[in-house]
Amino acid sequence: MYVDLHLKYISAKNAKGLLQKALNSGYSIVAISINYGVNCNKLLNEKWKVVNCFSCNRNNIIKKSEWESSVNYFIREAEYEDTMDKYLSKINCNIEENYILINRANTLSIKNICDDFMLHKKNEVTDAELKQLYSYLHAACENGDSIGIGDMSASKCSSIGGIPLNSVNNGSMVSGTRMEGHPFLLSKNTSTYILRRLNIKYEDAIKMDYHKFLRENAFDLIAIEVSSPEEACSAAHKLDCDIIFFNLRKCFFSLKRSDVQNALEKGIFFEISSLNSISEDMQYYYFSLNVNNLLSIVPLNRLIVSSGSIKESEVIEPLHFLRLFFNFNSLSYKDLIGCITTVPLACIQRASVRKSLNTAVFYK
Q1: How far apart are CA 348 and CA 325, in angstroms?
Q2: What are the DSSP calls for 88-153, one per residue?
Q3: Helix (H, G, I), strand (E, B) or coil at 253
Q4: What's residue 151's pLDDT?
Q5: Dihedral, 107, 111, 114, 118 alpha carbons, nearest 10
Q6: Cβ atoms within 10 Å, residue 350
Q7: Helix 12-25 crosses helix 73-94 at what angle (to 10 degrees)?
Q8: What percent of the chain lies above the pLDDT cut of 70?
Q9: Residues with Cβ within 8 Å of residue 226, at least 6 apart in sequence
Q10: DSSP symbol at 364
Q11: Average pLDDT value over all residues in the chain
Q12: One MF term in GO for this entry (predicted)?
């Protein structure tokens, strides 16, 4: 179970693409973040509906000749998964509502995840909405090519089989069943969670009525961005937050263990993100020095690594993402795997305790 707690919200359409790419890349829990100072309610009001989508016949997705051309079983499977993801991505772009189709089964165990915090974020999809999606996908297969949907747009499928796509219809459909003659199997997703995160710069946090703002806004995670070791120490002392993350374009060469000790004692987690968005050589040089120092100072069991992605192209598979850190401090998969699995989950539990005023109930 992999976790990415930092996908950046730019617009509703962009966020939908990021979430679809992250969930199909292997992440089970993701957090979409927005910066303080913009209209935060835009993110709080967004609701995403995650649906499992499987092809009942692979020839609907890949031409039979192409399917049989690959002799190796594992190559065929990889090609199919990649093609299916591209296919679903194109369909997602044409669905006006916030449906997110993923080609994954329900496999996440919620053991040791906080009940109060997680289970009310199921992104429930009704039977009527599943029926609506069936109609849309049926049109996609009829009008599209082997790996895409051609020039089909939502307007061309505004009414299919008497079912309007822009309204909720009465009716029932058992989750996990398939319409007769339909090439897709849809089911309700119960193993992915989308959280909402607020990023606040330290200088903004100390100017506002911080604790009142937190009480009045229902964000799942609160993260403070710091630009110096002094701000990191002060943020832990003055602000009750879940994550402290660093502006790595600033200098953190002088960061010491004493600067983060107060935060560690309060259960606050640290985060390194946006490693895959650095491009210029000189910028990468200073960025690398900062990351190397942070990995030396902050214990790995309190360190979260996340993508900080803005574009879909910046979202990569979890284990490939960890490779970006192999140039620092002689770290390996064994050292870092917790930074995208158990450590983010512990941070989520910590956030639940803060959010529920110490009344959180954990799953047993």
Answers
A1: 23
A2: HHHHHHH-SS-EEEE--------TTSBHHHHTT------HHHHHHHHHHHHHHHHHS-SSS-TT--
A3: coil
A4: 36
A5: 10
A6: 21
A7: 160
A8: 72
A9: 202, 232, 235, 244, 245, 246, 247
A10: -
A11: 77
A12: RNA binding
- State the Cα–Cα distance between residues 137 and 142, nearest whole angstrom: 9
- C-beta separation of 149 from 140 below 8 A: yes
Every domain of the chain and the residues it spans: 1-45+195-354
Q: Residue 82 and residue 21: Cα distance in Å, rounded?
A: 11
Partners of 50 in beta bridges: 100
CATH classification (class only), 1-45+195-354: alpha beta
- Report how far Cα 253 is from the mean position of its chain's Cα atoms: 30
In this predicted model, which residue has the larger pLDDT, 122 or 261? 261
Q: Hey, what are 324's tokens?
A: 């970006």
pLDDT tens profile 250-263: 877 788 899 999 99
Helix, strand, coil % in the chain, rounded to nearest 5: 45, 20, 40
What gap in Å lies between CA 168 and CA 139, rounded to an integer? 18
**Which residues does residue 200 pair with via DSSP β-bridges, in sequence order?**
224
In 271-313, where does DSSP find H-type helix? 281-297
3-state SS of 14-65?
HHHHHHHHHHHHCEEEEEEEEEECECCHHHHCCCCEEEEEEECCHHHCCCHH
Taking only the tens place, the pLDDT of each residue in 275-327 is: 666 666 556 777 778 888 888 899 999 999 999 999 888 898 998 888 887 76
| Predicted local confidence at residue 168, as pLDDT | 31
Q: How far apart are CA 36 and CA 112, in angstroms?
A: 31
